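Exam revision sheet. Question 4 asks you to relate a sequence to its structure. Input first:
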Amino acid sequence: MESDYHNVNSDRKVSFDENIYKQYQNKTKILLVDDSVDSGNSIKLSKEALKNYFSKAEIKTAVFNFMTKSTEKVDYYLYQNTMICGLWSNDSKENKKFNQLYNN
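Answer key, structure tokens:
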């Protein structure tokens, strides 16, 4: 099953606290983990941000689910072309309750 849920690449600003990551700046291997890659836009932007800061690092990607129509390929995945809906997903019926519990 191919998903069209995230078929629009929205502008996103990817950033991280350089003071926290400064101690890791000389690392040569990074594993970037995400729940699902649909369009590929989020993981592409995240990977680019990491590459800009960790210029010497080899960056691999691992996800639970990978949609084959994605413009960005991943290195490791558990499922292919499968819609996974976790509590954290905005389209989950339990999302509102999950966010309330998380915020408390």
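Marking note for examiners. Residues 4 and 29 are 32 Å apart (CA to CA).
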